[in-house]
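Subject: design request, 349 residues
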């Protein structure tokens, strides 16, 4: 039975994980940044799919390369311009002497901050996009408490097919480990069935977490109008995010978690991983608990089986986070939210 991980049904249920967000929605602005701050010594990995990625420091996370740990993951709008938000994250970490030691003094560190961005430039006036101040402000706002969802942070200008996208998060408890995900849903594909309003990943809901007591279950004018990112109506899109677990994993094992989390994208949007997406998922392993191990070959098989269950959970929580991001979003001019299209859906208080 699927069990949410506790306090918040969020990535911050993983002990030591903090999330901060910053956005601008005033005149001419609709963009932001989200930062995931893990505890020191967290192992990092990444899996990137789709044809239009916007990333920074992802080669560093390849298992055969030198550095094993990361200090933060920065997610932002603004396309390639938004990668500048990671500069602010680095400055915030540098001020706290957090990073890879490169000299004899405690202050001589290089913060390791992998980053990914979504394409949301049409949502803001040209020239308005996240910069270093966004990343710094998101770090300042970071907490281990509930995570705001919807039109916030890196999801402020996000679009999911025909609907407003956004930030979503979820968590799960499996074998005593906590697995959490945070997704920024900006997919080229649709996240819901336009003829019924039911999310593609609705089957993974746990205990009414999506807040909907019934799906519309009927064809509507929205579907027949032919809206969406089909045919020639293609945009540069991307779903980005992070999945975290409180297990002690190697860099290669951590990458398997990131690979599995991409399945959550495939469950939640159709089509996924297109030439117009740059889907990128980071994985973070905080190292708090060891995977179960026994002597001899049986022990290795046990480790592999435990890792496999963590990977399956990573796919589920990422899919659930994506649904929550779409359902939590609020519409903006020219881009309706889910609740705008299906207002008759009963939402639980």
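Subject: RE: design request

Done. Sequence follows.
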């Amino acid at each position: 039975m699927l069990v949410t991980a506790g306090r918040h049904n969020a990535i911050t249920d993983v002990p030591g994980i903090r999330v901060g967000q910053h956005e601008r929605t005033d005149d001419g602005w609709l963009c932001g940044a989200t930062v995931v701050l893990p505890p020191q010594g967290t192992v990092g990995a990444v899996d990137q799919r789709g044809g239009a990625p916007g990333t920074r420091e992802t080669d560093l996370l390849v298992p055969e390369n030198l550095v094993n740990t990361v200090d933060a993951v920065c997610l932002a709008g603004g396309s390639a311009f938004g990668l500048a938000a990671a500069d602010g994250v680095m400055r915030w970490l540098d001020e706290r002497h957090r990073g890879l030691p490169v000299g004899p003094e405690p202050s001589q560190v290089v913060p390791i901050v992998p980053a990914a961005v979504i394409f949301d430039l049409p949502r803001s006036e040209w020239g308005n996009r996240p910069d270093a101040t966004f990343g710094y402000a998101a770090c300042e706002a970071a907490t281990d408490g509930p995570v705001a969802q919807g039109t916030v942070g890196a999801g402020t200008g996000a679009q999911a097919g025909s609907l407003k996208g956004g930030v979503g998060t979820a968590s799960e408890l499996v074998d005593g480990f906590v697995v959490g995900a945070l997704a920024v849903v900006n997919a080229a594909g649709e996240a819901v069935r336009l003829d019924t309003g039911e999310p593609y990943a609705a089957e993974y809901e746990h205990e009414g977490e999506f807040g909907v007591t019934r799906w519309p279950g009927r064809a509507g004018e929205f579907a027949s109008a032919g809206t969406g990112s089909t045919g020639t109506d293609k945009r540069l899109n991307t779903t980005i995010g992070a999945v975290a677990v409180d297990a002690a994993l190697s860099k290669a094992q951590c990458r398997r978690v990131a690979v599995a989390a991409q399945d959550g994208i495939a469950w939640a949007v159709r089509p996924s991983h297109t030439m117009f997406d740059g889907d990128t998922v980071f994985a973070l392993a905080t190292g708090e608990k060891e995977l179960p191990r026994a002597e001899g070959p049986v022990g290795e098989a046990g480790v592999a089986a435990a890792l496999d269950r963590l990977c399956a959970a990573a796919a589920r929580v990422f899919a659930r986070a994506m649904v929550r991001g779409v359902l939590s979003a609020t519409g903006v001019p020219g881009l309706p939210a889910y609740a705008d299209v299906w207002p008759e859906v009963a939402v639980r208080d």
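The first helix runs from residue 85 to 95.
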